[in-house]
Design a protein that fits this description.
- By secondary structure, the protein is α/β, with parallel strands linked by helices.
- The protein has one domain.
- The protein contains 9 helices and 10 strands.
- The strands form 2 sheets. A 7-stranded mixed beta sheet has the order 4-5-2-1-6-10-9. It has a 3-stranded mixed beta sheet with strand order 3-7-8, covered by helices on one side.
- The protein is globular and about 45 Å long.
- It starts with 14 loop residues before the first strand and ends in a 6-residue tail after the last helix.
């Protein structure tokens, strides 16, 4: 696994937030998804000694349309790596019913519940992590994916996203549950209930590259991208101030 991170100079001793697609690694190595997930986490720990390794286990549509989130049993919608980590390596999962995050190094469990319960709130998880200047890492994805972008959109007040209250139930374990009115930050939808407009992710990636804040290395066809959350925030914020529709 180490060979895929040659010349990938991710800063050490930082919080890493991983978005991972295992398909290319699976094709190159022939290894199973559980083994790849375990080796990937171990390699990141060995190379970069991170303070935390965080993985999104979002359940956006499950909660939006079903109204139920169970921190132990709700499956991740973010791909195979996310689900492998949730099932086998997670030490803690935040109770956010749409944007939950798991942690493999006992970091999040020491934060106040008020931080972990909401992703985009002023005192929520993304604001907290941004203060720590966490590192967004993409592995095996075609273009940069970063939830941080939505925090920037919210701060600028783009007209194609809005806050919608979604009522539902959050199960913390098999016995403890609560009704919630969750303030979801969602995109506008058209008459066919399809979110619009689509994001131009390649334009966003090119823009960040041109401003020398995005780092990309491709080893054996596996693309690895990383960026400081504060650098992404500052760069995208300036772009949105000039053009509120820059991202779409």
């Amino acid at each position: 696994m180490f060979e895929f991170f040659e010349n990938v100079d991710i800063p050490s001793h930082r919080i890493l937030f991983l978005h991972v697609k295992l398909r290319d690694l699976h094709a190159l190595t022939g290894k199973g998804y559980y083994q790849l997930s375990r080796e990937l986490i171990s390699t990141l720990q060995s190379l970069y000694q991170p303070v935390a390794i965080l993985v999104p286990t979002y359940t956006i549509y499950t909660f939006m349309f079903g109204g139920v989130f169970h921190s132990l049993f709700s499956k991740s919608e973010v791909g195979r790596f996310s689900e492998e980590v949730r099932c086998h390596f997670a030490q803690f999962r935040t109770p956010d019913p749409m944007f939950s995050v798991v942690d493999v190094l006992h970091y999040l469990e020491n934060l106040p519940c008020s931080v972990c319960c909401k992703m985009f709130e002023q005192e929520g998880l993304l604001h907290y992590l941004t203060e720590q200047d966490y590192i967004i890492v993409n592995i095996g994805l075609d273009v940069l994916y970063a939830t941080q972008v939505h925090l920037v959109e919210q701060s600028v007040g783009v007209d194609y996203r809005f806050e919608k209250i979604i009522e539902g139930i959050v199960y913390h374990d098999e016995y403890k549950w609560e009704k919630v009115a969750y303030p979801a930050y969602v995109r506008q939808v058209d008459q066919h209930k399809v979110s619009y407009p689509p994001y131009d992710q390649r334009k966003r990636e090119a823009y960040l590259l041109n401003h020398s804040v995005l780092n990309i290395v491709t080893n054996q066809t596996v693309k690895i991208v990383w960026i400081s959350s504060q650098a992404l925030t500052q760069t995208i914020h300036k772009a949105l101030l000039q053009d509120p529709h820059f991202l779409i």
